[in-house]
Amino acid sequence: MEFRVEKAGSDLMKTKPNENSLGFGQYMADHMFVMLYDESIGWHEATIKPYEDFSLDPAAMVLHYGQAIFEGLKAYRGNNDRIYLFRPTDNLKRMNVSAARMCMPEIPEDLVYSAMKELVALDKDWVPRAEGATLYIRPTMIASEAGLGVRPARQYIFFIINCPVGAYYPEGFNPVKIFVTDKYVRAVAGGVGNVKTAGNYAASIMAAVEAQKQGYTQVLWLDAIERRFIEEVGTMNIFFLIDDELITPPLTGSILPGITRDSVLRLTKDWGFKVSEKRITIDDVYSANEKGSLQEIFGTGTAAVISPVGELNYKGRVCSINNGTTGKLAQKLFDELQAIQSGHKKDPYGWVVEI
Ligand code: COI
């Protein structure tokens, strides 16, 4: 299957926002990619076209039962206005894992990959030039069939929209304060926590809102069964540096296999760190802090890349990490990833693709 390209005329081209106050996900670029699915004909009508509203039947199944999956990756502007993507095919592979779990059709990875590159090339002026700003790419699939029976839909819309973004958290790369929740849980093995489906994010909002009311940026999620083992932080994977050992929870079914998580594991192993994917409890973290062996905590994700944690609050016990400052490893990872992602540093891993 091929895709068509309908370029926006000058009347449909939007004014670009100020690159120094982009926020996250507030402005959409001029074009989008859309492709339809029907059980009887498969994927069809693949088109890059001007950004526009959808028309959806109010009974569209995504609106009722939440068959919705998405991905997030970024385009970076490097030297000489070159544009790069970071590990894009890993996102598409993960999307198909999410699709299988949610009983949604697989996307044709090669076609979507070509369309994504062409879409970014067409909207290349939307890839920001400001330091740290990027074009966030959001591939999404929703169930569009109208009907209120609970079953897999027979019709879907897949689309890609792009938006220029700055830092994900208002704190930027500065350490965030995290509230450890033992009241809410994010996911349990056997559920859908290990795939990127919209409902996981909907379910997380109340915990985040309550944490924010108490002055915290996000929550630390504990496991759903014993409420002791650490799983994720906000919408990110989490890492601990304790006694020079870098620890992250293993992918045991309730944790999203982050692409930044995987990149951090790869880089730190190559730098000679002792790296362990193993279960760690919140009590382990507090006792390491008491002993003075807790060196750093940071989250990893596409949106924020690396997000240092400066403070935890668990049951009213406040623990300051690295005196609330960004740790050396978090800084080094952030610098290294940014340098690779924007083509400033040689990429020995084959992660970066130039458009
Ligand atoms: C990420 O860290 O990239 C995310 O998943 C956040 C996104 C939902 C905005």
**Number of strand elements:** 18
How confident overall, as mean pLDDT? 96
Helix content range of the residues, please? 10-25%
Order of helices and strands: EEEHEEEHHEEEHEEEEHEHEEEHE
Write a compact overview of the structure shown:
The protein has helices at residues 61-65, 88-101, 109-122, 198-213, 259-270, 282-291, 328-341, and strands at residues 4-5, 31-38, 42-50, 68-70, 73-77, 83-86, 134-143, 155-165, 176-181, 218-222, 230-233, 237-242, 245-248, 274-277, 294-301, 305-314, 317-320, 352-354.
Overview of the molecule:
The protein starts with a strand and ends with a strand. The longest helix is centred in the middle third of the chain and has 16 residues, at 198-213. A hairpin with a 5-residue loop joins strand 5 and strand 6. The strands form 2 sheets. Strands 1, 2, 3, 4, 5, 6, 7, 8 and 18 form a 9-stranded mixed β-sheet that branches. Strands 9, 10, 11, 12, 13, 14, 15, 16 and 17 form a 9-stranded mixed β-sheet that branches. The chain is globular, with a radius of gyration of 21 Å. The protein has helices at 61-65, 88-101, 109-122, 198-213, 259-270, 282-291, 328-341; strands at residues 4-5, 31-38, 42-50, 68-70, 73-77, 83-86, 134-143, 155-165, 176-181, 218-222, 230-233, 237-242, 245-248, 274-277, 294-301, 305-314, 317-320, 352-354. It has 355 residues and is α+β, with helices and mostly antiparallel strands. The model has no long low-confidence stretch (mean pLDDT 96). 24% of the residues lie in helices and 30% in strands. The structure holds 2-OXO-4-methylpentanoic acid. 2-OXO-4-methylpentanoic acid binds at residues 72, 201, 235-236, 301-304. 2-OXO-4-methylpentanoic acid binds next to loops.
